[in-house]
């Protein structure tokens, strides 16, 4: 009864079978059905009400984006896109996330032998984490509908919303599952008066971070770019770590420069939130504002703990507005967060904290 009920929608019989075999290898996941195109997929979502759907983008009769629109309009469900690792695939995936998809898996890497164990583990982890959180949100929604007055008027005892006065010289932000859409709801609302650098690690493959950076830049008052090796760090600029690479900062002749590298090669994620935030702390110390948002796992925990120990300030996203409450949960459970905020409060809070002192 507690299994994550999953529907696979893909026009390739090989992909459907491969996804099914990988997912069903975990006893907590149940494949309730498969669909060969978008039309059949939409019908099965409405009929079976799965916890999670894996949805291919390119399909006959009804493509993935069109199917996703119908699913979100008629029967909102947690959807993971199966995406091509190309510039076109990255753009389509970002479009899907704007339409309501919560995450994606790269199609080309899904069944390459050298990566099969890693991809299988990542796929299973995503389906389980997203499925559990979707169930939690549904339960909270039902409680809210039944007890709306009590829920909306009872303050959450653990939530803090006012940070102590502090002068910030840099912002370091870590984010993963659900990040692209969340960033689109925060970065474009940041004030053009912010003149400190903002460093972001979003767990994504190459090409995807470039598309995300370009999209955010077109929407934002601040300059947003995919960080490049040798970039001179400037205030009022948002640097997004390139997919598959670590982003750190190294002073050269007194000037801070972006350093892009494959090292360390031992981290679970590349780019790594821990690696980036540790580097920002090395360069800006306690005047770093650390932010951890939606995502699986606990990447960023160790660096945030270090920042907290030297007197830095930390903001974590609250459980209700996360797609997956993993990375922020690690921060909150360890009492490292100075503020725990819903998604719609991040830009306002950052503006109030940073612009006030510049």
Write out key terms for the chains shown.
single chain, 358 residues, alpha/beta, Rossmann fold, 2 domains, seven-stranded parallel sheet, five-stranded parallel sheet, 12 helices, 39% helix
Write structural notes for this entry.
This protein has 358 residues and is of the alpha/beta class. 39% of the residues lie in helices and 21% in strands. It has a seven-stranded parallel beta sheet with strand order 8-9-7-6-12-13-14, with helices on both faces. The protein is globular. The N and C termini lie far apart (55 Å).
How would you state the average pLDDT, rounded? 88
CATH architecture of the largest domain: 3-Layer(aba) Sandwich
- The percent range for helix content is 25-40%
Spatially, the strands of the biggest sheet line up as 8-9-7-6-12-13-14
The CATH topology of the largest domain corresponds to: Rossmann fold
Number of domains: 2
Radius of gyration, CA atoms, in whole angstroms: 20 Å
Tell me the name of the CATH homologous superfamily of the largest domain. Answer: Methylesterase CheB, C-terminal domain
Oligomer: single chain
Structural class label: alpha/beta
What's the SSE pattern? EHEHEHEHEHHEHEHEEEEHEHEHEH
With helices defined by DSSP (H or I, 4 residues minimum), what is the helix count? 12
* Gross morphology: globular
Low-confidence stretches: 109-114, 143-160
Total number of β-strand segments?
14
